[in-house]
Amino acid sequence: MTTTIATANVNGVRAASKKGIVEWLADTDADLVLLQEVRAERDQIPAAALESGGWHWHTAPSRVAKGRAGVALLTREDDVEARVGFQSDEFDTAGRYIEIDHGPVTVGSLYLPSGETGTPRQEEKYRFLDEFGAYLRAKKKEVEAEGRHFVVGGDWNIAPKEADLKNWKNNKKTSGFLPEERAWVEALKTEAGFTDPFRELHPDQDGPYSWWSYRGKAFDNDAGWRIDYQLATPGLGAKALSARVDRAESYDTRWSDHAPVVIAYDI
Protein backbone atom coordinates (compact mmCIF):
# COMPACT_ATOMS: atom_id res chain seq x y z
CA MET A 1 0.00 0.00 0.00
CA THR A 2 1.28 3.46 -0.87
CA THR A 3 1.24 6.17 1.77
CA THR A 4 1.98 9.68 0.54
CA ILE A 5 3.21 12.34 2.96
CA ALA A 6 3.30 16.03 2.07
CA THR A 7 4.95 18.78 4.09
CA ALA A 8 4.55 22.52 3.53
CA ASN A 9 5.36 25.74 5.34
CA VAL A 10 2.23 27.80 4.67
CA ASN A 11 3.64 31.18 5.81
CA GLY A 12 0.39 31.92 7.65
CA VAL A 13 -2.68 29.81 6.95
CA ARG A 14 -5.01 32.81 6.95
CA ALA A 15 -3.04 34.49 4.18
CA ALA A 16 -2.51 31.22 2.30
CA SER A 17 -6.27 30.56 2.36
CA LYS A 18 -6.74 33.62 0.15
CA LYS A 19 -4.05 32.53 -2.29
CA GLY A 20 -4.64 28.88 -3.13
CA ILE A 21 -4.01 26.48 -0.25
CA VAL A 22 -7.72 25.68 -0.08
CA GLU A 23 -7.59 24.33 -3.61
CA TRP A 24 -4.31 22.49 -2.97
CA LEU A 25 -5.75 20.75 0.10
CA ALA A 26 -8.73 19.63 -1.98
CA ASP A 27 -6.61 18.31 -4.85
CA THR A 28 -3.52 16.78 -3.23
CA ASP A 29 -3.02 13.03 -3.42
CA ALA A 30 -1.38 12.99 0.03
CA ASP A 31 -2.59 10.72 2.80
CA LEU A 32 -1.01 12.95 5.45
CA VAL A 33 -0.23 16.66 5.30
CA LEU A 34 2.29 18.31 7.62
CA LEU A 35 2.02 22.10 7.94
CA GLN A 36 4.35 24.64 9.50
CA GLU A 37 4.13 28.34 10.33
CA VAL A 38 0.36 28.08 10.60
CA ARG A 39 0.36 31.27 12.73
CA ALA A 40 -3.17 30.79 14.03
CA GLU A 41 -5.18 29.31 16.85
CA ARG A 42 -7.59 26.58 15.80
CA ASP A 43 -10.57 28.96 15.85
CA GLN A 44 -8.66 31.43 13.65
CA ILE A 45 -8.09 28.99 10.80
CA PRO A 46 -10.47 29.92 7.95
CA ALA A 47 -13.40 27.55 7.57
CA ALA A 48 -12.62 27.17 3.88
CA ALA A 49 -9.26 25.62 4.77
CA LEU A 50 -10.62 23.48 7.60
CA GLU A 51 -13.35 22.07 5.40
CA SER A 52 -11.31 21.60 2.22
CA GLY A 53 -10.56 18.01 1.26
CA GLY A 54 -12.29 16.48 4.28
CA TRP A 55 -9.12 16.61 6.38
CA HIS A 56 -9.00 16.21 10.15
CA TRP A 57 -6.76 18.90 11.63
CA HIS A 58 -4.45 18.35 14.60
CA THR A 59 -2.83 21.62 15.60
CA ALA A 60 -0.14 22.92 17.94
CA PRO A 61 -0.15 26.73 17.98
CA SER A 62 2.49 28.75 19.76
CA ARG A 63 1.52 29.65 23.33
CA VAL A 64 4.54 31.91 23.86
CA ALA A 65 4.34 34.06 20.73
CA LYS A 66 0.76 34.31 19.51
CA GLY A 67 0.45 34.58 15.76
CA ARG A 68 3.90 33.09 15.19
CA ALA A 69 5.17 29.59 14.40
CA GLY A 70 2.54 26.85 14.87
CA VAL A 71 2.43 23.38 13.31
CA ALA A 72 -0.35 21.08 12.19
CA LEU A 73 -0.83 17.52 11.03
CA LEU A 74 -3.76 16.67 8.76
CA THR A 75 -5.11 13.13 8.53
CA ARG A 76 -7.80 11.38 6.52
CA GLU A 77 -8.88 9.44 9.62
CA ASP A 78 -10.66 11.02 12.58
CA ASP A 79 -9.60 8.53 15.29
CA VAL A 80 -6.06 9.86 15.64
CA GLU A 81 -4.45 11.07 18.84
CA ALA A 82 -1.77 13.73 18.36
CA ARG A 83 1.16 14.39 20.69
CA VAL A 84 2.50 17.92 20.97
CA GLY A 85 6.16 18.67 21.67
CA PHE A 86 9.16 16.51 22.55
CA GLN A 87 9.44 16.82 26.33
CA SER A 88 11.14 20.21 26.18
CA ASP A 89 10.49 22.80 28.87
CA GLU A 90 11.50 25.60 26.50
CA PHE A 91 9.97 24.53 23.19
CA ASP A 92 6.89 22.38 23.81
CA THR A 93 4.61 25.44 23.97
CA ALA A 94 6.28 27.22 21.05
CA GLY A 95 4.35 25.56 18.21
CA ARG A 96 7.37 23.69 16.88
CA TYR A 97 6.48 19.97 16.80
CA ILE A 98 3.51 17.61 16.67
CA GLU A 99 3.38 13.87 15.91
CA ILE A 100 0.96 11.00 15.42
CA ASP A 101 1.03 7.27 14.87
CA HIS A 102 -0.19 6.27 11.42
CA GLY A 103 -0.28 2.52 11.04
CA PRO A 104 3.30 1.26 11.38
CA VAL A 105 4.77 4.77 11.13
CA THR A 106 5.22 7.58 13.66
CA VAL A 107 5.00 10.86 11.76
CA GLY A 108 6.14 14.27 13.02
CA SER A 109 5.62 17.81 11.70
CA LEU A 110 8.52 20.12 12.54
CA TYR A 111 9.12 23.86 12.35
CA LEU A 112 12.73 24.33 13.38
CA PRO A 113 13.73 27.87 14.46
CA SER A 114 15.19 29.92 11.63
CA GLY A 115 17.92 31.61 13.64
CA GLU A 116 19.99 34.65 12.73
CA THR A 117 23.76 34.60 12.74
CA GLY A 118 25.36 36.32 15.73
CA THR A 119 22.09 36.99 17.59
CA PRO A 120 20.13 35.42 20.49
CA ARG A 121 17.89 33.84 17.85
CA GLN A 122 20.82 31.72 16.71
CA GLU A 123 21.56 30.68 20.27
CA GLU A 124 17.90 29.64 20.58
CA LYS A 125 18.27 27.60 17.40
CA TYR A 126 21.32 25.80 18.79
CA ARG A 127 19.45 24.99 22.01
CA PHE A 128 16.65 23.54 19.91
CA LEU A 129 19.09 21.46 17.89
CA ASP A 130 20.60 20.01 21.06
CA GLU A 131 17.25 19.02 22.55
CA PHE A 132 15.53 17.90 19.38
CA GLY A 133 18.55 15.96 18.18
CA ALA A 134 18.52 13.96 21.42
CA TYR A 135 14.79 13.37 21.01
CA LEU A 136 15.18 12.11 17.44
CA ARG A 137 17.86 9.64 18.45
CA ALA A 138 15.86 8.31 21.38
CA LYS A 139 12.61 8.10 19.41
CA LYS A 140 14.30 6.27 16.56
CA LYS A 141 15.57 3.60 18.93
CA GLU A 142 12.14 3.32 20.54
CA VAL A 143 10.14 2.87 17.35
CA GLU A 144 12.65 0.53 15.73
CA ALA A 145 12.64 -1.66 18.84
CA GLU A 146 8.88 -1.94 18.31
CA GLY A 147 9.35 -2.86 14.64
CA ARG A 148 7.92 0.47 13.50
CA HIS A 149 9.10 3.36 11.31
CA PHE A 150 9.65 7.05 12.07
CA VAL A 151 9.65 10.08 9.77
CA VAL A 152 9.83 13.78 10.54
CA GLY A 153 8.91 16.25 7.83
CA GLY A 154 8.84 19.98 7.88
CA ASP A 155 10.77 23.20 7.60
CA TRP A 156 14.19 22.31 8.98
CA ASN A 157 15.63 25.74 8.19
CA ILE A 158 18.96 24.10 7.32
CA ALA A 159 20.22 23.38 3.81
CA PRO A 160 22.44 20.33 4.37
CA LYS A 161 24.62 20.43 1.26
CA GLU A 162 25.88 22.86 -1.38
CA ALA A 163 23.43 21.26 -3.82
CA ASP A 164 20.60 22.36 -1.53
CA LEU A 165 20.81 26.08 -2.23
CA LYS A 166 21.52 28.04 -5.37
CA ASN A 167 23.87 30.70 -4.00
CA TRP A 168 25.77 28.65 -1.46
CA LYS A 169 29.05 30.54 -1.93
CA ASN A 170 27.44 33.77 -0.72
CA ASN A 171 25.69 32.13 2.24
CA LYS A 172 28.55 30.47 4.12
CA LYS A 173 27.94 32.77 7.10
CA THR A 174 24.15 32.80 6.84
CA SER A 175 21.95 30.98 9.34
CA GLY A 176 20.61 27.93 7.60
CA PHE A 177 23.94 27.11 5.97
CA LEU A 178 26.36 27.48 8.87
CA PRO A 179 28.90 24.67 9.34
CA GLU A 180 27.52 23.80 12.79
CA GLU A 181 23.97 23.47 11.46
CA ARG A 182 24.98 21.36 8.49
CA ALA A 183 27.09 19.14 10.73
CA TRP A 184 24.03 18.57 12.93
CA VAL A 185 21.99 17.27 9.99
CA GLU A 186 24.91 15.20 8.75
CA ALA A 187 25.28 13.59 12.19
CA LEU A 188 21.62 12.61 12.15
CA LYS A 189 22.35 10.64 9.01
CA THR A 190 25.85 9.28 9.57
CA GLU A 191 25.69 8.72 13.34
CA ALA A 192 21.99 8.32 14.20
CA GLY A 193 21.12 6.51 10.96
CA PHE A 194 18.35 8.69 9.52
CA THR A 195 17.94 8.87 5.76
CA ASP A 196 16.93 11.72 3.44
CA PRO A 197 14.61 9.92 1.00
CA PHE A 198 14.23 12.88 -1.35
CA ARG A 199 17.98 13.24 -1.79
CA GLU A 200 18.41 9.50 -2.21
CA LEU A 201 15.85 9.51 -5.01
CA HIS A 202 17.45 12.60 -6.59
CA PRO A 203 21.16 12.19 -5.76
CA ASP A 204 22.71 14.22 -8.56
CA GLN A 205 20.25 17.10 -8.82
CA ASP A 206 20.71 20.62 -7.50
CA GLY A 207 17.69 21.20 -5.29
CA PRO A 208 14.95 20.79 -6.17
CA TYR A 209 14.39 23.81 -3.97
CA SER A 210 11.41 24.33 -1.69
CA TRP A 211 11.81 27.97 -0.56
CA TRP A 212 12.41 31.14 -2.50
CA SER A 213 12.60 34.66 -1.10
CA TYR A 214 9.78 37.00 -2.09
CA ARG A 215 12.45 39.59 -2.83
CA GLY A 216 13.77 40.19 -6.31
CA LYS A 217 13.54 37.46 -8.92
CA ALA A 218 14.45 34.53 -6.67
CA PHE A 219 11.46 32.42 -7.70
CA ASP A 220 11.69 33.24 -11.40
CA ASN A 221 15.42 32.45 -11.39
CA ASP A 222 14.95 29.38 -9.17
CA ALA A 223 17.44 30.85 -6.70
CA GLY A 224 16.07 28.83 -3.80
CA TRP A 225 16.92 26.67 -0.81
CA ARG A 226 16.02 23.06 -0.04
CA ILE A 227 15.10 23.47 3.62
CA ASP A 228 11.82 21.53 3.60
CA TYR A 229 12.39 17.77 3.66
CA GLN A 230 11.66 14.51 5.42
CA LEU A 231 14.16 12.51 7.47
CA ALA A 232 13.19 8.87 7.97
CA THR A 233 14.43 5.74 9.65
CA PRO A 234 16.29 3.59 7.10
CA GLY A 235 13.60 0.93 6.87
CA LEU A 236 11.09 3.54 5.77
CA GLY A 237 13.53 5.47 3.63
CA ALA A 238 14.17 2.35 1.60
CA LYS A 239 10.44 2.21 0.83
CA ALA A 240 10.32 5.68 -0.77
CA LEU A 241 8.88 5.34 -4.27
CA SER A 242 8.80 8.92 -5.53
CA ALA A 243 9.46 12.46 -4.37
CA ARG A 244 8.46 15.80 -5.82
CA VAL A 245 8.12 19.51 -5.05
CA ASP A 246 4.73 21.01 -5.90
CA ARG A 247 6.28 24.21 -7.23
CA ALA A 248 3.79 26.85 -8.34
CA GLU A 249 3.58 27.48 -12.05
CA SER A 250 4.31 31.18 -11.63
CA TYR A 251 5.21 33.77 -9.00
CA ASP A 252 1.66 35.11 -8.83
CA THR A 253 0.12 31.68 -8.20
CA ARG A 254 2.19 30.96 -5.07
CA TRP A 255 0.30 30.64 -1.79
CA SER A 256 3.48 30.61 0.29
CA ASP A 257 7.17 31.40 -0.10
CA HIS A 258 7.65 27.64 0.35
CA ALA A 259 6.33 24.80 -1.85
CA PRO A 260 4.98 21.43 -0.68
CA VAL A 261 7.40 18.50 -0.65
CA VAL A 262 5.61 15.22 -1.36
CA ILE A 263 7.02 11.72 -0.89
CA ALA A 264 5.23 8.41 -1.56
CA TYR A 265 6.22 5.36 0.48
CA ASP A 266 5.38 1.69 -0.06
CA ILE A 267 4.05 0.81 3.40
From TrEMBL:
It is an enzyme of class 3 (hydrolase). Belongs to the DNA repair enzymes AP/ExoA family. It holds the Pfam family Exo_endo_phos. This is Exodeoxyribonuclease III. Its EC number is 3.1.11.2. Its cofactor is Mg(2+). It comes from Salininema proteolyticum. Keywords: Hydrolase, Magnesium, Metal-binding. Residues 6-258 form the Endonuclease/exonuclease/phosphatase domain.
